[in-house]
Amino acid sequence: MGFNIIDRYIARTVLVFILVAAIALSFLSAIITFIDQTRHLGQGNVDFMFLLFYVALRTPSLTVMLFPIAVLIGCVVGLGILSKNSELVVMQSIGMSKTKIILSACKMIFPIAILVGVAGQTVVPEIKQYAESSYNFASSEGRLSRVGWGFWIREGNSFVYIRRTMSDNSIHEISRYDFDGTKLLKRSHAATGLYNNEHSNWDMFKVRSYIYDDKNITIEDKDIEHWDLYLTPERLEVFNLNNEELTVYELLDYIDYLETNNINSDRYRTVLYKKVLMPLSIIVMLLLGASTVFGSLRTVPMSARVLLGLLIGFLFYLTNEILPNFTYLVGLPPSIGVSLPLIFFTLISILVLNRKV
Fold it and tell me: Exposed/middle/buried for 111, CB within 10 Å: 0-12, 13-18, 19+?
């Protein structure tokens, strides 16, 4: 499926407005985020330069989140200008159908949608995690130390490293080092930890410990072990990862953990499917925007068509964000909740595209 001159012209026109919309939306969101965070200036090590650093790290996730809206705006405006200048009419008069014109835009947009989708599933969540981790530690006034993506806690003569925390207040990939002065007495690694409210300590699961004496190293494996830590669920809240911030690989790992322990994983499967199907969501946005710009300007002015495209697109965006969360709450499979908005609004775009006016 190659590009001819008309394909390149249509795709370039739409792509320019998509990029302009993406840059404008990202810049506006970054400014709003910066203004919102200025209330924390002076808290711990949070200063003006750190906030600039924090917002810079947050910008990629904001761009990915808003990219479907940018595609909608860029498609509606780009094709709208072509329609207003009667260029779409000329293209149709030489034999190009509405579908072929839309496909001309899709040829260039689809690879970009794939790229944004892959970035939104892998690199961008890691950057956002790093941004949030950096912010939490900067505002902790030195009580905690960060290394890599996790964080350290000192417990008397013990040091505890936690790789990841979750929104359900569970902790994952935990290492503990017990010292007597400078001598290492014991090193322990746990796969998962859950807070025990009854005993005010942590239940650690799948624990392997290495106990050091003067001559030997003893290895102990336990299914569960109880640890007393300064960390509580209340103190943990500032470090929790929202499920939207997880990469696909982290989601798969956490879903496996939940299902292994007979815990419902539908909420996380919903997020996983939304991430995987994000490129299709972007294409549906393009279809919705493009479907409204065709037709005679004598019957419906271009401003009304642009407004209609934006309204339908925003309705899809809201439905795609809200409906999946409701479907798993009422017992429907996450796959249905995620796919329903895509199917329904694709049909809407086809109906609008084939209208008479």
Answer: exposed
